[in-house]
Amino acid sequence: MGVVKFQRFFRAAAGLQVDRNDLKRYTEFIDDKIYDLFVVAKASAKANSRDVIESWDLPITAGLQQSIHRFEKLDEEIELQPLLDQLAARPPLDLALSEDTEHRLPLIAGGLSVALAQTFVTIAPRVKNPGTAEWSAVFEIFHLLL
Prior knowledge:
The protein has a two-stranded parallel ribbon. The protein is mainly alpha-helical. It is globular and about 50 Å long. α3 (62-78) crosses α5 (99-123) and α4 (81-87) packs across α5 (99-123). The protein contains six helices and two strands, in the order ααβααβαα. Helices cover 71% and strands 3% of the residues.
């Protein structure tokens, strides 16, 4: 993802200032969380005797769905979709993805990004440039919930 768009996104989503070093943390976060979502989706598809993961197999909560909608509004301003298309690469699985599921991956990555930015504001409302401690705390929260 381009550093400038990454910084612009976090500024627009939560009023945060992130730097080039945070980009690596962010991309690892997105990779990990998308993989986690697909672990659950894979189990759902297999439990329903399917060899294709459908979009409804993904464990998208109401909160994540709201974050996806917020992302869509932000994306109109910042145009992150092309960058998230690359970032939300399909994790290696032994099941195929439906076309709809494949199409939703960048939106899910965008929703996770909005939720990530908002979580920083929730845990440290006065911090404008999150450091290692804030990134670790946010990662731990997402690890517990997703």
